[in-house]
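REVIEWER CHECKLIST
Item 1: Sequence provided? yes
Item 2: Single chain? yes
Item 3: Sequence as submitted:
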Amino acid sequence: MHDYPYLGTHDAPASIRSAHASGGARFFLEWILAHPAVTSVIPATRDPGHMADTLAAADGPLPDEPQRRRRAERWAARRRRETMTAPPASILSAHTSGWAQFFLEGILAHPAVTSVIPATRDPGHMADTLAAAGGPLPDEPQRRRRAGHWAAR
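Item 4: Structure as written out by the authors:
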């Protein structure tokens, strides 16, 4: 299996998607081209209507180089934030083994939270989730230290 970055659009805000109401082809094309590794796009579809939308979207001006560079810098910063190595021992509880438990402990310990409903189909993930509630939860200073660590990423 390859470790290619996902170039989908499901995480784009609905307000941005709705601004490109012409079938979304223009939005999708710009979204994909914003990725720094993309130098060309080869659209593939069996539907002539989809191809017409894609060709019409590509007919207008695409983002210029400075705009693409800014988007690429934002993309790279996002990827750095999302690259999760193991959390440092200095911010973990004695029983915490990874990021899932790290975040769930923080959520469970927050005074404004009354319930947490994690969802997964993977039994291993569920066991990891349940382990987050198996020990003492972080107090206020620990939560602040964890938040500071996360913000510094």
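Item 5: Key structural point noted by reviewer: The chain has two domains: 14-82, 89-151.
Item 6: Recommendation: ____
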